[in-house]
Protein 1
Amino acid sequence: MDRTFERIPSGCAISGIMNVAGQRISGEKIIASISLMHDRSNGLGGGFAAYGIYPEFADHYAFHLMYQSERGRTLTEEFLNKHFIIERGEPIPTRPVATITDPPLLWRYFLKVPEERLYKNPEPVDERDYVVEKVMYINDNIPDSYVASSGKNMGAFKGVGYPEDIGRFFRLEEYEGYLWTAHGRFPTNTPGWWGGAHPFTLLDWSVVHNGEISSYGINKRYLEMFGYKCTLMTDTEVVAYAVDLLHRRHDLPLEIVAKVLAAPFWKDIEKMDEEDRKLYTALRQVYGSSLLNGPFSIIVANSKVMMGLNDRIKLRPMVWGRRGDFYYMASEESAIYEIEPALDEVHVSKGGEPVIVRLKEGE
Amino acid sequence: MPEGRVMAMEINAKGMYYRDLNNLLREKVAEGVTEFTLQGINGQRYLGTGLKGKVKIEVYGTPGNDLGAFMDGPEIIVYGNGQDGIANTMNDGRIVVHGHAGDVLGYGMRGGELYIRESVGYRVGIHMKEYKKQVPVIVVGGTAGAFFGEYMAGGILVVLGLNKKEGEPLTGDYLGTGMHGGVIYLRGEVEKDILGKEVAEFELNEEDYRRLNPLLENYANFFNVSLDEIKKVPFKKLVPVSHRPYGKLYTY
Amino acid sequence: MANLIPPRFKVVIDYEKCRKCKRCVINCGFGVYSFADRVIPDHKKCVSCQRCVAFCPEEAITIIENPNVFRPNSYWTMEDRINIMKQAGSSGMLLTGMGNDRPYKNYFDHLLIDACQVTNPSIDPLREPMELTTYLGKKPDAVTVKVENGKVKLDTRIAPQIKLDTPIIFSPMSYGSISLNAHKALARAAKECGILMNTGEGGLHKDLYPYKDWIIVQVASGRFGVNQEYLDHSAVVEIKIGQGAKPGIGGHLPGEKVNREVSETRMIPEGTDALSPAPHHDIYSIEDLAQLIYALKEATNYEKPVSVKIAAVHNVAAIASGIARAGADIIYIDGFRGGTGAAPTIIRDHIGIPIELAIAAVDDRLRAEGIRNSVSIVAAGGIRHSGDVAKAIALGADAVAIGTAALIAMGCHVCQMCHTGNCSWGIATQRPELTQRLDPDWAAQQLINLVKSWSLELKEILGALGLNAIESLRGSRERLRGIGLNDTELAILGVKHAGR
């Protein structure tokens, strides 16, 4: 594809629902929530991440693939066959929707990593690193192919169109998940690039993002130093990779990851007690290139957690609320009320202060 | 239409697109309707925008962004929470929100009044300004987020901090940063290090109470709160120390 | 035959305005003026330092370029011809001061900075927080933490870091090449601005000891003034390998400049030449550099970052990588426009590469090798204004160093005669009647003003870029565009052409 554009600016709407007891609900609600914010998108991108939707393949990496050509599919399937055990491969079910035109070939594969693959090197390879490397390889090297998602028991469904139309196209009402996030996109040009829609994912991480990351240039170069390939022409993918680097590879707690992405100001670090001051000073010294500068509100999720985060001077909106075990996050409060009129609590988020919701233990 | 006659109507706006709703409102106002009750509001933007004169709108639900943007006279009462951008560049009128509200309220507001029963988000009262007899007012019953009164050039901001939790600050950081006109009345104390460098804190004088008291009375009346309770805590005021804080910034 | 060489400048005196106050006679460090009934200039001695012009109360003096025209020749410039005449008459190497003044391509002026419009907002730097704080030093690849009683605590030992309030420091200029008053002004300004001054290789005068937390002390090939006490009075220790104005070249401070105080500071006898060998004779290879770096770390108990200063030469990227791997905490790169107190003209004008290309090449190489975090980059050599600072940082520098700009702030008019020791402005001289002209308090305030105004401008640039911390600009070449550059140049700089 034409990658003259390194990055396409876009505005957006985001929404997320999580049941912390693991209770699964259909895709209807998240569609209703995101579609209320119709005017925040312009029909050039919509998408959903859904967790808990493949219980029968819970231990398999679920790869959602987008192909621009049959050749891409042939090459990718060859590649997958070589590096994985393909338990099942099938087209992702869709229904015709008048406004959704020219979709790519959409396939999904349930994969396992052949164990011997992890021991070929002198040092054993982390299975997740192995998967990440293969995802990066496909996105970067196999023509006409793009991995939309690669986590276990989850999937990303996204494309060019309004989110509610994308949701119907992918028949999301037929899926059940305990965690859903959604995105409606307002990009400023029209390359018709399905891969450019949100969410962006890596393993079971997904990110939906409203705003524009002004520090994209250095975030990208920093992540490239750690082997990530930023090829998707959008600033949002750097968020997914940064979270993967900081949380999974550098083993930082999610709360601390949030404080790297939206770092406290030096003047506020000065006021901390000595121990915190040391920690936060070190974080900014070491991870300055991971600071996401510029306006953003994001919902980052994985199988166990949903985190809402705003930039440190809060230039993008976010509201979160709760009703029983259901937690909601959205760009507009009305998008929550649309699906849950009687909230137990509702709050306007603060800049740089993450809202983290975790699956209850043992669920 | 005879002078002084009130024509009222109720609209069930559930699921209604904002453009259709606002068109309907403008049409009905032109026909002489002066009081509206809007039921089932959720997320419709720009309510009250483009309306002039003596019109009263009661809103049940959560109106969308830019409620009352560029509004010039009407009164809007919201029974629910507000979102972002309320009273954006508003010229005249009154908005009363029986709940909390989001960010960037009263941006560039030149006149009229905004009362929020509970707390508000970031950058409320940003670049509010007064001109001749127009003095915009925002009264916040709860607490305010960071950048409250940023670049404020005129008008009155009030934060009451009612029902605030122990240890919860009255406002966020960067209070009155870039403020160069108008006044902020604070019910209670704030940490000095959150103040913008352009402002200083002072005691209220008689003139201040003359301006503040009617606003507090309004708040008490609108939300059925005891005025005595509000007045139990002493007020401080923030005003800019210079109308031209950047006079020495440039060289020629 | 001396008449072969025409004067470069003409001193034009308006005798109708002249009150014969003789201020010009007193002020000229180069002996241009004599007085006999009226002021008489010797045009040949004039270097256009502008001191007399600035101090003439009647504005009666104008210095013009000699209008006498050699036959025009676009190949044999007037300067080339005069230099040949000088050498034919003397058999000496041409000597000069300040930085390369030849019209080589200037990459800073072929780079343009981005700004936000609509899709992301610019930020108001006057009302919203805007951070320029920069830490120089070696950073680990990752931070490790431990959780104790629910509290997250730092578990990584972070190597020594130096905090700068703004990413601009003063470049090394030795006491000897410049006056003690100039050194004092630099130290005071560094403290006030929360930045660093650099001793250069001439040792540290005891009057500057109170400023030790804002001082980089240099260890150069001559090892002047280097002892434990010297190392102790510093924030950073810097090994000087090379200088942009004279890469690969040593130098010497002539004995006549080594007065009592210079002698004490350099710890050499009064009146002797202070020789700086071309190389460090304990560094003939990269592993020797590592040996010296760790010797200095041992001497300073691993409490101070060790910087290595090199000139930007062709293979700068590989050299920088070697320096990072040798254990340096900071790499200071001096581009070919960097200044000097004295250098052979032919060296100054023909050796080295532009700092813009050097920053890009070094930053790229360190990233490709995954070791960019392990070292900070300070870039110098021709930083003229905050626009250059922003561009250097966007290309990949952590901070910049300014020398010539700092001298100009103290009164220097860039006459390029530092090597003569006659500086009429009292900066690049040790002549007491000249050095007393520079009031260190005034000069410090001038420097403080300059750093503060550049910092304000940097905040405006960041605000326009929609950024509120300098680290978000550092290495963010996406925010730069080239103009009038070819594909190779763009590829080296890692920027797209304007319009893309």
Protein 2
Amino acid sequence: MKLISLTLDNWRGVSHSQIDFDDGVTLIEGPNEVGKSSLVEALRMLFREKSGSKKQQVQAVQPVGEDVGSSVSAEVRCGEYHFTYAKTYNRKHGTELRILAPRAEQLTGDDAHNRAWEILSSHIDTALWDSLLVEQGKEIGGVKLSDSDGLARALDNAAGGSGVSGEESALFGAVQAEYERYFTLKSGKPRFADEQLRVADYTAQVASLRTRGQELEEDLRRFEGVSAEISRLQRALPELKAAREQHTERWAAVDSLQHRLAAREDELKPLEQLLDNACGQWEQRQQAGADIARRSAELEEKKNALQPLAERAEALERAVKDAESGLRGLRDRRRELWQARVQAQQDVSYLQDAAELSRLQQLLDRVQAQRGEVEKLRENLAGIHITAEGRKAIQAAATALEVARRTRDNAATRLDVEALQGLELQLDGESLKLSAGEALERRVASALQLEIPGLARLRVTPAVSAGDLAEEVESRQQELDDLLARYQVGSVEQAIAQDERRVDTEQAMQAARGRIDDILQGSDEDSLQAEYRRLQQACDDALAQRDSALPLPASAQEARARLEEASKALELCEADLERKTGGLEQQRGELARAQADHQQANTEANALASVLDEKRASLKRESEARPDATLEQAVTEQQNRLDAIAGELDQLRDELKAADPESARLQLDNATKAFQRAERDIIELEQEQAVLTSRLDRAQANGLFEELEHAEQALEEAEDTLAATERRAAAAKLLWETLNQHRDASRQAYVRPLRDGIQSLGKIVFGSDFDVTLAEDWTILDVTRNGQTVPFDSLSIGAKEQLGILTRLAAARIVADDGGVPVIIDDALGFSDPTRLQSMGAAIAAAGGEAQVVLLSCTPGRFMHVGDVGVRRL
Amino acid sequence: MKFIHTSDWQIGMTRAFLSQEAAARYSQARIDAIRHLGQLAREHGAQFMVVAGDVFESNQLSAQTLSRCLDALNSVPVPVFLLPGNHDPLDASSIFRSKTFREQARGHLIVVSDSNPIPVPGLVNVEVVGAPWFSKRPATDLCTQALKTLESAPGLTRILVGHGQVDSLAPDQGQPGVVSQAVLEQALADRRVDYVALGDRHSLTEVGNSGRLCYSGTPLVTDFDEVAPNQALLVELDADDCQLTPLDTGIWVFLAEQRHINGPEDLAAFAHWLEDIRGKECSVLKVGFTGSINLALAAELDALLEDQSHLFASLKRRERTTDLAVVPDELDDNAIALSGYAEATWKALLAQSAVDETASDALRLMYRLAGGAAGTHGGRGA
């Protein structure tokens, strides 16, 4: 089949579109929504859907909002046929087929549709047509080609097969239909379960009816048995009755004898009572004597037993007294030991205290010595008033005075006198003698008067400023003097010396205090003192309380040894005391019991004696009232009367024994029971017979036999039907399986040409070592590239799509000689890279040499590598 | 004096190999036979009828069956003596004592319930002495027992009616219920009885050579191995003469056939044979085939049997005696055009069919599906 042209009018969004197809590859390019996919849809619909179809998919092609029919028209060459085929859907729908060759023909309506479909399906494989169409948005991976008869035929040719009639499909379909009459196609489950069920049902029904039949047989047998038994029993009944009467008579004789015997025995009973009474009285009298004798013997025995009990109590009393005195001694000893231990304890304390006291004494002495030292130093300090500040002030004042003096002196008028010869002179009243050459120098601070006696009086008066300086000196002097007076030192030097001494003394005092702290080692002296006094007191008290006769232990160790010794002795003593106290308690208990025993025995003896006295008195009274001889005689009399009647009874009993009442009774019972049993058995059997009769009547009316016969007949019919069905099913199954087996085998042989086709195109795309493996249904199992084999499913989407297209192209090439089907690829290869697109282009071009290929693309340039292509742009 | 001797009506019997439709007609035929016997009695002037046991197939029949039978029996114009046999013994569940029987049986139906001689109503000096079965397992020879107390009575014609196998014909003579032929013949010789009407054998059989000791056979065939069924005996007793006349009573035929088929001519002969059978709707056939045929012939045979089975009351293959090899030959190959894997399948099945019957079936099926059987007029053998 070759598409020549396709025209669409008012198809979805496309108002008008016409495409002329090339023989080889036609590329239809156009943006989205321009109606490329509508071309594919219209082409499919043209052949598949009648123009009058009201299917939803048909109605969907009507342009939105326009009340117009949608038309598609195609010019097609198909085998020897060349025709144009047009359909309008929805509004003003219609079909027109115009056959141009081999004979002109024109049809409309359904005739046109049927004729077009007939031409198409007789020339192309519509299944393959569907497979070779890559529709937009549909899965584009693997291709299912196995349903295609045309491909099989083409492949068979390619595989060198001979005489393929193309009717296998029809046969295969017929066999499949036959198989499906008996089995489900998918799971192979039998479809004749109802027949099997029917057989099972009838089998169960027959079994149940047979069981009922057997029960009926059983009932019949039982009925026969019961009837026979009833007549046997009825025959036996008179015999049993006679036997019962005979034994009844015999029993009557025995019974009268028994009555007489019983009457005699009744007479015997009061006599026996009288005899018993007499015997009783006589026995009582004898027993009273014996009782008195027994009691007096018992009393004697009790009395004898009293003495040892008293003796034992006395002995125990003595033992208790001894133990008590021993215990008292032990208690005294314990007190002594306790005191000794207290003393030892005190000694230990005393010695410890004394040692502590002596240590404290030494400590406090050393502290005291240091205290004296400190006191002495303090006394030294007492005469010193200078302080570090004082000293600094004095020194400063001294310096200031000196400065003032120097200033004054430098500023003062100076008087130099040089003696040219020895002379005497007076200076301000002071007589001075100067030898020759000697010189005198004076500062004139205030007016000065030099008088060389006799010669001259010289007066020198300084300027006024000299006086201010002098005042300054005086002021400074006054300051110094004040300071010295305040710190009670005579001079500056003395102040310095005293201050040095103060510093030294203070340091010494500090050292002495440090030593006191060292000695005290953090303790408070007062508390040590208190402790010392306490210990002193304790030691004094201990010595005062202590028995001076006892020697004081030599050392603390000895004291502790003595304490330990005393403790041990006390412990031993106390253990002894405890043991002996326990022993005493026990002895006291024994004593109490022995005394109680004695008391008890004594009381009992007294009680016995009193009872005995009473008994003796009582016996005496009774013997006086009824002497022993009277009682004895009464016994003898009663015995004689009794013996007489007993003789008579013995005779009667012998008679009865001879009559054998036991067996007479047994035989009567037996005969009675046998008779009754027979009667009862008859009744029971008759009841059973009645039950059986009613059951048999019912069964009789049920028509069980016929029911069984019918069930058996139905079963046999069902079994026959099932057997026939099973036989046919087995044949159909075997045929189906064998046919499939051979079809698969032949497919396997067909696989090679398709594989070769895919491989030759694939080499262009995937390289020279490309190879594929196909399954029997022609799907790709795996792919080998660059020496690596991978399953088809694990390939990338792009590779899957490319292989899908290659498979279609290969299939189209194979069938190209044989009918041929165009490959239509709608908007594919979106997942392919530029290199792949290039090689795919080459492959498509190669396929286009033999098969018609229509490419639809919205991406300009995607198929630019397809060399030989007619491009149509929408 | 004339009477009809019949037995083994086996009312209520069904045959499992009959389809339900045929079974219903077969059952009806048994009832019809009773009316037919009544008609024969009238035609031949028989004065009464004895049924020597197994009137009923079982004591447990549906009220419907019993009612229909009684309706037919009531229409018989002469007294009918009904003897309980091994199938319908006079036990606690006896059909003769059932409510339906008691209510619907008319006075001329006489159930032989003991061995006391029963005078035949309307006849002088004719007595029927029966040996009825009281259970399915009689402890003794019931006929011998019935004859034990029977004194010879000159001037009286007596017919002994018994049921069971006579020892001369019984396969197992040790069975307690087997009838002593010698005792019967002695009784005939002593003229204590004048005719012994026996039942139990379904084929009309004369026992011994007294000419007065007979099995009448069943009035309607019940099995394939019965020699002379579908008859009853008209007995004419005169002072010293006993005339026996078989009367046809049934038209049903049970046939067991064995055919050898090796070619189209054998098949044609078989078809012809079938064609010639009259009363097909009352014919029960089972046919065993032997021989070797090709697929085309096998398909034809299948079609023939399929077609004819609609005509016959029953037409079945005797699987037990069928040994028919179906061997495809060139003619078969030419009849269908196979190629490719279909041809491979054909060859594989062909190889297998020699040893595997299913493969043979599959081959025949394929032959048919491939259009090979299109020439024959058979449908698809479903």
Protein 3
Amino acid sequence: MNRLRPPATRPPSRTLEHGFRWLCLLAALLPVAVLGVLLFDVVRTGIGRIDVQFLTSFPSRRPEHAGIIAGAVGSLWLVGLTAAIAVPIGVGAAIYLEEYARRGRLATLIEVNVSNLAGVPSIIYGLLGLELFVRALSLGRSLLAGALTLALLVLPIIILSTREALRTVPRGLREAGLALGATRWQVVRQVVLPLAIPGILTGSILAISRAIGEAAPLVVLGALSYVDFLPDGPMAPFSALPIQIFNWTSRPQAGFAVNAAAGIIVLMATLLVLNAAAIITRNRMQKRLGR
Amino acid sequence: MQTTVDSDACLSPPYRTMEPAQMSNPGVAAKLSVQELSAWHGEKQVLVRVSLDLPEHEISAVIGPSGCGKSTLIRCLNRMHELVPGATHRGSIQLDGEDIYASGVDPVLIRRRVGMVFQKPNPFPTMSIRDNVLAGLRLTGMRPGDLDAVVESALQQAALWSEVKDRLREPGTSLSGGQQQRLCIARALAVEPEVLLLDEPCSALDPIATTRIEDLLGTLRERYTIVIVTHNMQQAARVSQQTAFLLQGELVEFTETDALFTKPKDKRTEDYVTGKFG
Amino acid sequence: MARPASMRRSRRVGEALIERSMLGCALLSVVTTAAILAILVRQTGEFFAEVPISAFLFDTQWTPLFADKHFGIWPLLAGTFLTSAIAIAVALPFGLLAAIYLGEFATPRIRGVLKPTLELLAGVPTIVYGYFALVTLTPVLQKFMPELSGFNALAPGIVMGVMIIPMITSLGEDAISAVPGSVREGAYALGAGKLATVFRVVLPTALSGIAAAVVLAVSRAVGETMIVAIAAGQQPRLTLNPQVPVETMTAYIVQVGMGDTPTGTLEYRTIFVVGATLFAITFAANLLSQRWARRFRER
């Protein structure tokens, strides 16, 4: 057996291999570490700025008087409206593609379309929203126009993740339902959806968090960066958290950079909460389903 | 429907010269009558002009090597075949003399009259044992008055009642494999079908669970017409009155089970039942 | 033959209605694409009714907002190319090495932790990356490069590179994992070491998948907006110098979008012309990526 044991000193190729392995690991970890450092720097800069005044004030020419209330409330409106529009449509489209569509030209056309839309830059959606919702449909530079635009933007994400979720439901369960004399919709409603809901929910929350951080289409659409009132309905003009951050970042005075950092903390904290909620929802529901 | 695939070269099975095209058992009423049924998956033909009459209140077994079209045959009997993308068929099937593939016939209503149990036990994972039994009624929006009576009756028929009557609220997936399969039988029976199709119902089960299901089929025969697909010839011999032998999509022989196993008319049947292939 | 009612189609109106509405939802995506195309084509058409195509293609200046108007797309293309190239230069080595680690070295447990962690990079809003580029990274870089302007292509390029690493890693790993184990075993059986196997056998086999990943990353970098709008500047300039302010196509659209350009004017139409150019480039890149990705999946 001794002859098969590796020699005491590693041959150079083994050392090289070992080094390469560490290089690869480093390549995976370094960017994450960089992100960590950058975020830490933001927190250090901005955390002291977060107080009641900052959270409840409107924008101001003077950085120490400015706050995020207009942007935050605008973002809440946007997210609520976007979810209300995009989730039902996205889930419906996914159900059609997974449960109803027969293989054929129409299904292929829709599928190719959805995956291409997922790759269209967000700013193009801004141009679409500007021409279609703001001008053609005369919605003006309103929350509704913004939410419709964001809804179209996240629709492909919701469709793709819902399809994934539907695909995890075994085919045999659908057949069992159909063999009992249930219709397609009865099977979808009562067998498939209950099992797929955790996945659908997680995917939808992740899509919505994409919408929260999105600034480019809203800028093109004409979201405002200086708003001294809260929206009173979906037709109101609006600001949004990322727009506010964009505005502060672009200003030369140092005080606004601190505001931007504080705004980023609020934005990232919101995203963190949403993502945690997505994960917890999924885990809890999967436990309930005994999987 | 397809018209291209069948050529007469592959269509001259000897039985056709020996017997009339319709293989049937005279004297017994046919519950399901299959006539000249061909079926395809995409371009591949899996059934070649199969004709047979399945008698009422009897158990008919369908045997044959893997890929001979057994499953496709019974999936045509409740119109489940057409759910597979690219699946097509030709020919007709009559349930009590009515063509189930005629235009205007609702497959959903056919499936309520012709129930099915699958190879792998597939209770609905989100539902309790009780809800699984009631699934057919709930899914289809039927509301019978006494749900408890339905649950007990279906589970009694499936010989599962005594084992689960104290745990009806537990998930259906908490049962053993054999129990799950009997639960699936109970689920199929709860919608009161006339015909019960079983697609290799014991292939995922151990011998003891298999025996219980085979015993069960004997009693179910009094109320239902049963068609069972099996890859196990002994099982066919034990439970059925009629047996059909399929080979490469062709019906080679369909006759009384005893006769098929003891004095097969076709050489290929003889080779198969004596274990020369398959 | 008379059929009893029991087998005939019963009330399925609701059922058909549901299917129709689901189909409607699905068709909305087709309508969206059609609307994007219609809007871009229409506005672009009206733009070229006033500005000759030659001015768009051959002029080397882009100054539609000035009194002396020039409509040459090249400065914007150059800015886009420069920032994207820097991003790919950063993302490709890191993303690919990380993909190799995940596909060839990592145990399932490490993978389970590392993959979602890397995905975090793509989950951070681009506005936050923009802040990093302008407020954090540029001052740091200026310590080493005194020539570096406050707005430049380098810092946003690097930051954008970090952002698109997960895209290269994820698709690249798919491609590496899709290489059959038998191919690796064939190499090992010849006595090849891990390194030789990875570089001589696995990566060449996975090449089309890796190329798909890179092209997709390019498309993402070209379309990225906020990072470059914040940190690269707003000066359309035909240069490949990463140290000076430039303007990308996306940043130009943002610049006009923020101002109060009246609709229907030539200035207003320029953002759609630039948008159409951007759409064409990203669309072509996405198609190419899909084609190459399909090639490795089919094998």
Protein 4
Amino acid sequence: MHLNHKKSSRIVNRITEIQTDGGLPKTGQNMSWYMFDDGYYQMGFPLGGAQRFVDNGDGTVTDMATGLMWVSDPTMVGLGFTMYWYDAIDACENLNFAGHSDWRMPNIFELMSTVDHSRYDPAWDTMYFAYPPDTWTPFWSSTICAPWTDGAWCMYPYDGYKTTYGIPWDMCYVRPVRGGQA
Amino acid sequence: MADKIKTEYKAGKKVVTFPDGKVREIKKEEVQSFRQHLLNQKTNIETQLSRVDADLSEMEKSKNIIVE
């Protein structure tokens, strides 16, 4: 009975008993600094060294782990400035870009899924996602803060830190997304 | 008890040695950059706190107003 609680047994169970085509993306840490740290396991999708992001050549990027399509550079679509939360939602909803009109503002999970924790300033792969005008100002998500509904969850481009900004008062950047499951 | 991470300061850098021998050098600019990021977070948290305090103050003032 105690054997089932051993670390090695837990790992074997996870691999053999759970079959899925989805899951959390890798964090991006590929350097192991300490035994059994994130860089040691590198858990998440894509498995192995497979390519995660695909540059579609039209200003959009597809994430093979989440199936989401992102605007590579919000400046290219006229969204390279900070704006209020409501305006950011409207801007995404009204966006017609790369042959698609179903763009929307990402929720906080979607936004955080673009973070690469091996990088900072900005904390994403700049091969696929352009440098933001500044890394100190967060990007809006469409997710409202549960205990205080004047706030929406945001993400600092500097390091991917999740924070809350005030919907009626604050101005942040936005990166439109499309696709995903509903 | 696992081996601990060793930290030294050499040639103006922070040198971190991990138990398996890996060495990471951290430059002053990196730490200054992170410090600025923390200050930005602190400013934001103070701003959000003042707004939450304003809400609490209004709630306190309105406690005798009955909702029908």
